[in-house]
Specification:
The chain is of the alpha+beta class. The protein has four helices and nine strands. The protein has helices at 26-42, 126-137, 171-177, 193-205; strands spanning 55-56, 63-64, 80-90, 93-98, 101-107, 110-111, 141-145, 159-165, 182-183. The strands form three sheets. A five-stranded mixed beta barrel has the order 3-4-5-8-7. A hairpin with a 2-residue loop joins β3 (80-90) and β4. The two termini are 20 Å apart. The model is unreliable at 3-27 and 37-65 (pLDDT under 50).
């Protein structure tokens, strides 16, 4: 969920109560995937030895899908936490307990459909995105990874971070992999931009979540 009207890049077009996706030719997405993969190699992003494919578990039947190389969780010395999750606000915003207080965290690099913005109607697939994040983080603790290329907090006072589970899953990336969120870059490229974009291309090619023509019919 994006609240800043001055955003410079967005891969989804919002209209009325739905979030129809920008149609990208399959050949163009394939080229984009190749370029993103090359960028991962050039920037030294390596696949984790403990990588497992994304598994969708929100439906009646779990399905395993292909995924881009999964980044390894940074050393704990580079992370803050672990912090118990107090609650999930929506698909891309959570609240964690921090030293007797609470901190609201907006996930970097992703955008899920609007659910609670009083200025906008509830958007298609927002409830599913929120439910997915809740399924990952309810009664869990998380580590926060801050990105020096991004602001520490947004204009609403929310911390901006990547959220890692104690099982070494990057929640930001898993949201994109399942088609619950779009990759989103604000002003400057973020640390995981290449892998997020490669993963989004795969999700689009496989018609997952928001990318399915049946999810948000116009």
């Amino acid at each position: 969920m994006i609240d800043d009207g001055s955003r410079t890049l967005e891969s989804v077009v919002r209209m009325n109560n739905h979030a129809p996706m920008t149609v990208i030719p399959r050949s163009s997405r394939a080229l984009a995937t190749l370029l993103s993969t090359a960028a991962l190699v050039l920037t030294g992003c390596q696949e984790s030895a403990s990588w497992t494919p994304y598994t969708a578990t929100t439906g009646a039947t779990a399905t395993t899908a292909t995924a881009a190389p999964y980044p390894p969780m940074p050393d704990l010395s580079e992370l803050d936490g672990p912090f118990p999750v107090a609650r999930v606000v929506d698909g891309d915003t959570i609240v964690v307990e921090n030293g007797g207080a609470t901190t609201t965290v907006r996930l970097i690099g992703v955008d899920t459909p609007e659910l609670l913005d009083p200025r906008k109607p509830v958007q298609c697939f927002s409830r599913e995105a929120s439910a997915y994040t809740k399924s990952l983080l309810t009664d869990q603790s998380v580590y926060l990874e801050y990105d020096p290329t991004q602001d520490r907090a947004d204009r609403y006072g929310r911390d901006l971070a990547y959220v890692w589970t104690t099982a070494e899953r990057l929640v930001n990336l898993d949201l994109i992999a399942g088609g619950f969120a779009n990759e989103y870059t604000y002003r400057t490229p973020h640390r995981y931009q290449a892998v997020f974009r490669a993963t989004e291309n795969i999700a689009a090619d496989e018609s997952r979540g928001l990318w399915s023509p049946e999810t948000c019919p116009t």
